[in-house]
Amino acid sequence: VSVVTVAIPVLNGARYLDEVLSAVRAQRIDRELEILIVDSGSTDGSLEIARRHGAVIHEIDKREFSHGGTRNRMMALARGDHVVFITQDATPADDGWLAALLEGFEQADDVAAVFGPHEARPDASHMIKSEMERHFASWGHGREIHVQRLDTSPEGLAEYRRFPGQLTFFSDVNGAVARWAWERVQYREVPYAEDQLLGRELIEAGFAKVFHPDARVLHSHDYPPVAFFRRYFDEFRSLREVLGFRQPWGPRQTPRDVRGLVGADKRWLQAQGLGGRDLVRPLLVSGRHHAGRMAGSIIGTRANRLPRAVRRLLSLEGRDSFTPHEVPGGLLERGEANFDPNWPWEFVRRSYPRREVAVEPHTGKSDGPMTIAWVVPPWSVGSGGHTTIFRLVRQMERRGHSCSIHLFDAERSESRAGGELRDEIREHFVDIDAPVFRDLSRWEGADVAIATEWRTAFPVRDLPGCREKVYLVQDDEPQFYATSSRSIWAEESYRMGYRCVAYTPWMADILREKWGLEARYFECGTDLDVYEFAGEEGRRRDLIAVYARRETERRAVELALAGLATAFERRPNLRVAAFGSNLGVTGPLPLEDRGVRPPRELAELYREASVGVVFSLTTHSLVAQEMMASGLPVVELEGDNVTRALGESGQLVELAERTPDSIADAVERLLDDRERAAAMAARARSFVEERTWERAGDQLETALREFLSTPRSVPSLL
Amino acid sequence: VSERAADPEERARRAEEALEEVVADRNRLWAELQRRNAMEADLDYWRGRATDIEKSRWWKLGFPLRYAKRFKKDPAGMLEGRAAAIRRRRRGK
Predict the structure, then answer these.
(1) What is the DSSP letter of A199?
(2) pLDDT of A351-368, one tens digit each?
(3) Is there a contact between A180 and A118 (Cβ–Cβ < 8 Å)?
(4) Given an 8 Å threshold on Cβ–Cβ distance, is B40 in contact with A446?
(5) β-strands A118-119, A217-218: how paired?
(6) With contacts defined as CB-CB under 8 Å, which chain A residues touch B37?
(7) Do the Cβ atoms of A404 and B23 come within 8 Å?
(8) Mutual angle of helices A674-690 and A660-672, in 10-degree steps
(9) I want to staple A90 with a disulfide (CB 3.0 to 4.6 A). Which of A219, A429, A673, B79 is the partner?
(10) Which of A493, A475, A453, A500 is nearest to A645 (CA)?
(11) Taking CB atoms and an 8 Å limit, are B42 and A418 in contact across chains?
(12) Model pLDDT for residues A287-344, shown as the tens digit of each residue
């Protein structure tokens, strides 16, 4: 038969000890019961009472006693696998108390400790009775078994740091500890609140703790008002030392808190049948008690600021020390400054294990208007990628489809409301109708959900209520980043089984050939009203326009400037106008930095300059297309992304190898042979004229309908 | 003439039309729901912002100034409002 030990530290506890031990002996359990008493010098007959009840007694010197140390000693002396701690004035309320505590351990394999409620003794004041009821109603509403465990997700840890007491509370006035748990986490030798510290360490070690409502003991203290204040000073000083708790206060908050506690007492008294004038006196007593309690807690949790002599004066136990206790590795202290519950990449971590996009089964109906939800990353005014997205949204709206736009802002860089974001889109991008949401919290599903960038691919994959999930791939994003987490994660977005609509056939080929994805493509339009064609007349022979958005590495701005510097060495009369960057552009040649300009000003520059230099290493650039629309001969870098879209060198653009000399050569060829450059510019304009936004909209709509017409799964007829 | 007796092609056409209407209706409702959700989300956002402002130390510190400003503007109205609030509270009791 296994053994359970009831362990009681005793010092002059004769007042209740007989009652307590009788109630312990009367417990109905199917185990052997051991009563273990450690006495630290009683002189009131406590030892005789203990002997009469057959307790195992260990006597120690009073100076050896400490709340934590003595209980560790009792754990070591006890024979039981579970050791129940009560105090010499805590009487089990009935004969099922011990069985209830033991039942708590059966709730899970990892239950390290079980505690039960304290019920105030009949002669206790109404404040104490009401407070105890409220306190123990925090777990399982005071009526149900409640298992507590630490949620180690960032949100769970943040919640724990805000309100640790809900998880850490443990009381060895009425609590039990499993031996296996104590062998891992022991009591600490602290002057007070050793049980709170044990509760905290057990929870932080990842063990479970259980509240059992039927494991009740009768236990309460009543003191005169000043003594209550001093006791609360002691209690709350310890909570500060052990848990770092600080009682909040303020000229408005503290009276409000006291009023709240008195109000709770009032409700409790009313529930006991008191009303009218009978409430006045008890509530005045409540007011005095809670004011004293609040003062004790506010001063106690700031006891570190008091001189020793004052601490001794305020303490009921006469203790003058303040010793903050650091739990090794305790989550409340460990790396507080480095803990970020809003870590921006948490969405990636949560996206594993790998899974395919979630879509609803459907019949394959693909005609008629669709509902389309676009998920976009944060933008800044002038963002080319977002301009394309919003133009496509507009194109879909013009075709009768209903759209909504949802921001996915993992880095929490956007603080504006959805309405403000919508206003910005309408003012600086395109006049859309779609409502804009600042997050995904009000997601309602749609026929098609569209991810528009690698980060958005992660949440869109799992969003519910969609017939199809599509990935609008404007660029080969893994190439944006140096070998890094981001490049790995951008690649990961290609492994989710999205159906893709890529910008340019080149990108669609990559998705198909390298990643095995189903991919269609669209080709961007150009705003021909803004970028009007201009011939040779009016162009300045010495002016080169270079796209120098150095914020974007893939634009190879340094290489462009190196090439232009070489060209400048050969032709010192060249003037270079750089544009597109907010960071300021400098280079090894005289530059005119025009910064980020609105489209109409850019169009003017394109009509004025003789050569445009614009590079993009990962796709075909829209800026190049706008230059082509304006009749400006363009120098681009050789590469599959460009030749697949624009053909061989000299056909639509002049191609340069990836060296400064070759870039300078290409610029010079265009400057020297204006007839050839003009013919190329005319062909380029025709090319661009074919690529309207209507055409891009048609390409996207066709792709979406094709995807919908071939559902991944169809509804079961059963 | 009953539905059963109608020409199958005609029935199919009618069914198509009905389906189109349903889809159009569904899209209209979806768009309406999105608009309403967006408005509610904005409302929540601005409520949260207002609460943040009211909780801020600067707002609390400014309370006496704002109170004095309101009092200076309409002392009678302020006193009447205060009296009405006290009366309401008493009646509530």
Answers:
(1) H
(2) 999 999 999 999 898 888
(3) no
(4) no
(5) parallel
(6) 435, 437, 442, 444
(7) no
(8) 100
(9) A219
(10) A475
(11) yes
(12) 999 999 999 999 999 999 999 999 999 999 888 988 887 666 566 665 555 667 788 9
